Every structure is written in structure tokens, then in C-alpha cells.
TrEMBL record:
Keywords: Hydrolase, Membrane, Transmembrane, Transmembrane helix. The keyword Membrane applies. This is Lysophospholipase L1. It holds the Pfam family Lipase_GDSL_2. InterPro entries: RhgT-like, SGNH_hydro, SGNH_hydro_sf. The chain crosses the membrane at residues 21-43. Belongs to the 'GDSL' lipolytic enzyme family. The lineage of its organism: Bacteria, Pseudomonadati, Bacteroidota, Chitinophagia, Chitinophagales. GO terms for molecular function: hydrolase activity, acting on ester bonds. It comes from Arachidicoccus rhizosphaerae. Residues 52-245 form the SGNH hydrolase-type esterase domain.
């Protein structure tokens, strides 16, 4: 057997051992790096709640204040892992929201794990408006929103249209969505979609408050009371800050009742 000098043996042994240690160290460093990257991704990844609907939900321009869509306070009711992207627009129905490409724009960024809150009806149900949507088409449009959302791995949530403040002469609150509200409920049942009956919730609140006190929730101003409305305004459809927050809080409560995962991310400061 050929003798190997101690020096040569040491050189070969420690070189190979050093290489193995080096490779092992690299593997450990790589594993730590990947772990850090994964943790960073988890920290940076946010769930987005897309809100699609009409003026009762929409963000408002400063010049419209104190008119406030109930989607506006919604921005501040979740923790830092949730982003609220309010795409609702004044005057829109399911048909015009689709025709104008607004739904297509939502789909461009809608991702797995996101949510889409869908509240239409106010403009769909008025035959004299350009936005009018016959009942069968209204249902078809809702189903389009639902199916497209699910195909993206996101969660659709249907909401019935929020109540208008319409009391008759005897002080009885009138249901102003007698057709389109039930259509939303029926569609949610058929498609097995989570439903928030915002119409019923808001009607119950208005009934409890009564014809006069309920004005405090809506954009009701006397002439000269606010510079944005020098002639005053008596709006029984759109909310002020208080009304918008009340509606948003009722929606949040329903998220908890439905046990939706997003309810685990409500802000403690809300």
C-alpha cells in the first residue's frame, strides 16, 4: 500500500471536510434566507376587500361633504393586513358597472383570498334611469360577479340594497326595494353565497329611530347650514358621516355573525 504522508493526508482530509462544512453552512444560510423571505412575504401580503356598488357605498368628493358612502368608514375598520378598495360609483347599476369596464378593471387585480362586497339595486330598479336593469338581467349580472370572483379564488359577499328613508303619513316605513332586494336574497341562496341583508338591518334601525330622529343619519341640511349646500338639502337616500358609520358597523357585525375569516382582522381601534 502506498504510504500517504501525514501532511498530504491532512491537506486532503481537512480540505474535503472544509468543503463539506462550507456546503453545509451555505445550505443553512440559504434555508434561513428562504425562511426570512417567506416571513417577509407573509408580512407584506395583504387581503383586499373590493367594494362594488352605487352611491350609497361610494367614496365621495370633498365638495359633496357631509354626504358619505358607507364604504368610506370601512377603510379604517380593519387591521394593517387588509386593504379596502372601494370601486363603488355614484349612479351605477349592475349593468352600467359592467358596461363601463369597471368590473373588468376589478378582475385585473383581484387575487386568491380577496373578497368582493356587492351591493346594487338602487339604480337597477328605476325604469326611467339609463342605468335601469330588468330583473332577469339584474340576477344574471349578480351571477356574473359571483362566478368571476370565485374563478379568481376570491370570496363574493352579496348585500341587499340599503334602505331609503321613506315614511308614509302615518309614520310607517315603506320598503323601497320590494323587488330587487328579494332578488339578491334569492340569488345568494341559489348560488350559496354569503349574504348580508343590509336592507332589513337598515330598515329595522330606521323603524326604531322613527321619522324624525332617523333624519340624523342622512344628508339633511337647512339652508345656510353648510357651505357645500347653501340652499340646504333633504336627501333620504344618501348618508352623512353618522349614518355611513352606522351602516358600516352593521356590516362588520354581520361579518362576525357569518364567521367569515376576514372578521378576524377587524381593527381594535374601530
Amino acid at each position: 500500500m502506498t504510504k500517504i504522508s501525514r501532511q498530504r493526508f491532512n491537506n486532503v482530509f481537512f480540505k474535503s471536510k472544509g468543503s463539506a462544512l462550507f456546503r453545509g453552512r451555505n445550505i443553512i444560510i440559504l434555508a434561513l434566507l428562504m425562511t426570512c423571505m417567506s416571513f417577509t412575504w407573509l408580512l407584506q401580503h395583504k387581503t383586499t376587500i373590493y367594494m362594488i356598488g352605487d352611491s350609497t357605498m361610494a367614496d365621495k368628493a370633498v365638495r359633496a361633504y357631509p354626504e358619505t358612502g358607507w364604504g368610506m368608514p370601512f377603510h379604517y375598520m380593519f387591521d394593517s393586513t387588509v386593504v379596502v378598495d372601494n370601486r363603488a360609483q355614484n349612479g351605477r347599476s349592475t349593468s352600467t358597472f359592467i358596461a363601463e369596464g369597471r368590473w373588468k378593471d376589478v378582475l385585473k387585480t383581484l387575487s386568491k383570498g380577496d373578497y368582493v362586497f356587492i351591493e346594487f339595486g338602487h339604480n337597477d330598479e328605476v325604469p326611467t334611469k339609463r342605468s335601469y336593469t330588468p330583473a332577469p338581467q339584474f340576477v344574471a349580472n349578480l351571477k356574473t360577479f359571483i362566478q368571476d370572483t370565485r374563478e379568481k379564488g376570491a370570496t363574493p359577499v352579496l348585500l341587499t340594497p340599503v334602505a331609503r328613508r321613506h315614511f308614509d303619513s302615518s309614520g310607517r316605513l315603506i320598503d323601497t326595494h320590494p323587488v330587487y332586494g328579494p332578488l339578491v336574497i334569492k340569488t345568494a341562496r341559489e348560488e350559496q353565497v354569503d349574504l348580508i341583508d343590509l336592507e332589513k338591518l337598515s330598515m329595522d334601525l330606521l323603524k326604531k329611530m322613527g321619522p324624525e330622529t332617523s333624519k340624523l343619519l342622512y344628508n339633511q341640511l337647512e339652508p345656510g347650514e353648510h357651505p357645500h349646500y347653501p340652499k340646504g338639502v333633504h336627501d333620504d337616500t344618501h348618508f352623512n358621516e353618522l349614518g355611513a358609520r352606522k351602516m358600516a358597523e352593521m356590516v362588520l357585525h354581520q361579518l362576525v355573525e357569518l364567521q367569515l375569516p376576514i372578521a378576524q382582522h377587524l381593527s381594535p381601534k374601530r
